Amino acid sequence: MGGMRPYPREYEVTPTGRVVADVVPPGSKSITNRALLVAALADGTSVLRRPLHSDDTEAMIDSLSNLGVVVERSEADDFVVAATGRLHPTGKVLDVRGSGTTARFVTAAATLADGEVVIDGNGRMRQRPIAHLVDALRRLGAELEIEGVDGCPPVRVRGGGLRGGAVPIDASRSSQYVSAVMMAAPYATQPVTLTLGGPVVSRPYIRSTLDVMAAFGVAAEMKGDVISIPAGRYMSRDYRIEPDASAAVYPWAAAALTGGRVTVRGISPRTSQADIGFVRVLEEMGCTVDVDEAGITVAGPTRLRGVEVDMNDCPDAVLAAAVAASFADGPTTIRNVANLRIKETDRLAALEAELATLGHDVSTGPDWLHIVPRTPGGGVIRTHDDHRMAMSFAIAGLVVPGVIIDDPACVMKTWPGFFEELETW
Known about the structure:
Blueprint: E1 10-12, E2 20-23, H1 29-41, E3 43-49, H2 55-65, E4 70-73, E5 79-84, E6 94-95, H3 100-110, E7 117-120, H4 131-139, E8 144-146, E9 155-157, E10 165-170, H5 175-184, E11 192-197, H6 203-215, E12 221-223, E13 226-229, E14 238-240, H7 245-258, E15 261-264, H8 278-284, E16 288-292, E17 295-299, E18 308-310, H9 318-325, E19 332-335, H10 347-357, E20 361-364, E21 369-372, E22 379-381, H11 387-396, E23 403-406, H12 418-422
Parallel strand pairs: 2-15, 3-14, 6-7, 10-11, 18-19, 22-23
Antiparallel strand pairs: 1-23, 3-5, 4-5, 7-9, 8-9, 11-13, 12-13, 15-17, 16-17, 19-21, 20-21
Helix pairs in contact: 1-2, 1-3, 1-6, 2-3, 3-5, 4-5, 5-6, 7-9, 7-11, 9-11
């Protein structure tokens, strides 16, 4: 990240016309942070190849370092994780910054530590709920308490281990609660069985967690809404991080908006990453999707179609989908995305405000977004300190002159070189 050029306070996107490009996105954030956490609980040295280097993964690495785990960066830019199978807190507060995965994952892992740990973050993190996770960990025998307001961080974890057993867990607000418990669960005294309650949000992310756990030697099983995790230990290993499907949505959206053709390389069509579902949304909107050995290619139509779509399984792709929908030939409704209101910002409210900045008619409800496209104009897009707002609205600027992204540096959270990449399309 040190080699990236500094971002200005505002960035005006240059319209490009039809985008034709081959893109290899950075490593998956969700898989990198899962692999970092699991490797930290293993006994031995693991090498994570082609990981994401970003604010979110640095937050995870800093937190693990304060739990006694040594994480270094190799000459090839891989992460080398030297672990002992035990977590020894240094006494420092774990500052997760704005990283939701880090906050949830290290809260669960800290229950295994041999001392007390406090997890805290930035102002927005202190507004993001964590009570459902804390409740599940308490049912498994952990001692921890929330010190923030309204069920939000800081969280103080006593450490000492988990008892295990069969417990319910509310998965209606974030699948990260489930993934956090799953990854710590093998070290409980007894096997752990989780029964998911409520409508399960972002279910594919749970599959990603199962995949990473299996790769490091723990074969958990999911049948319906019941997850069984055996007692065991992770094994250190050499592990390659797949490119980020959540990042891939932006070049795919660029093809859709400009009538172009973009191939994203390195992501398997069989990936467990949730945002691969975005290509199916683009197909409904009239795009052509081709899958071959080269990668996954999206070709945009002459004009996109408005759609009505449930995006509960891929909520991080909603922002790009909403921007694409604002260029369609009719209205679009995106449903079943209530958890967007507890992300880096209230994403439904942010989308409503910034799509209106470009001239569109937008309305929102508790879990839905309705877009009526109008002839778009330029304007200054407030990113709301949200990397996905910045990247999604930058794609609109490839078509509409005068789109200015305020605080473009927020993309450092997951794709530090995004705007440099954008300029090559």
